[in-house]
Write the structure tokens for this entry.
Amino acid sequence: MPPVTKPDLIERLLRVLYSAVLYLLAPITVYHLIWRGFRQPAYLQRWAERYAIYSDSARKPPPHTLWVHAVSVGEVNAAIPLVQALRRGRPDLRLLVTTITPTGSERVRALWKDEVEHVYLPYDLPGAVGRFLAHYRPVAALIMETELWPNLLFGCRDRGIPAYILNARLSARSLRGYQVLAPLVGRALRTVRCVAAQSHADARRFVRLGAREEQTLETGNLKYDVSIPESVAAFAQECRGYMAGRKVWIAASTHEGEEADVVAMHRRLRGQFPDLLLLWAPRHPERFRSVAELARTAGWQVATRSRAHWPQREEAVFVIDTLGELVNFYACAEVAFVGGSLQAIGGHNLLEPAATGTAIVTGPHLHNFAEIAHKLENAGALRIGANAEAVERDLADLLRDDEARKRMVEAGRALVETGRGALGHTMALLQPVLDAAR
């Protein structure tokens, strides 16, 4: 059955109620931006984009604009192989990449500079959505992972813009969260051309939320198709020259509630490995300075990537306070702890360290990457600790056991290699809309 092409009475009523609530809550969005701005000043900038207010002098996009939406850094990274393939295959199409967070925005700029158009996606207010779509006039909407904004999806349908949800991911927790809006979100889902799910479990959850069976496909996870740049090896070689043979672990994508655990783990690990170096990459830029100060308070010499560039012999902690360099530093460490997993956050990308060739340890909270974690663990490429103490024991074992690390690295790389293919499936899925844009 084709996507829903006409609104019915129930849809109209649900949209009116949903939009009325959003307009009533609109003042709160300003307070939210101000509150976030105290922690991350970039939230105080470019407000007009968040309401799709574009200046008269803003350049009108060319008629063939292909729009990719990736909410933040993780989704932008997942979109890299897709965007690169689109740029190679259709250089005549202007690419628009939208994000919601400033860190996602910075990542887009770091990756593609002015080679793609970039703005923030506006709030899901009918007026803002209408202005955004009228200004950019995209030939298609390629929405990454789990961005299910009803007015946006209905707006695409109403303007004849084919919408796809790509690399679609929906955890059991997210499914429960959407239940309050299920009658509306389900109708919005049925307007899209296709839901291209990462896994069978994700596909089934999208169907439970309201997507039709025939429009929901399992295409695999684009994160498997991310290639590690050749420059990473040279970067790691230079970095290791400064490390002078020291043992190194990395705490990646950590959150505020995990920081005390990282400090405690590093203190005890240095009791076993006195020269141990911690590379520390907080998930959110507003935590860069706080993490460095926390490590100094623990009594260690600390340096940061933005100031010192490379770790020196006397330093116990090196804070990676830059964006877009995590993969490079994964290659410099013998073992990685991937954060967001000691709290009920759901974990972060495990395939990047696996593809880079780093042994991986996490905490137990991995609901956002459940299938990937299961595959990595079964392959022997991942250790999952039940708590911070168990994570620490796994880190110590792997820092001590070169052969165990080697086996994990080989298993991780093999799994990533066998998991590739989602990009080919996705490009084939998009071919009709790409052909129509000529």
User: Anything to note?
Assistant: The two ends are 26 Å apart (CA to CA). The CA atoms of residues 135 and 176 lie 35 Å apart. The chain has two domains: 9-220+421-436, 231-419. The longest strand covers residues 138-144.
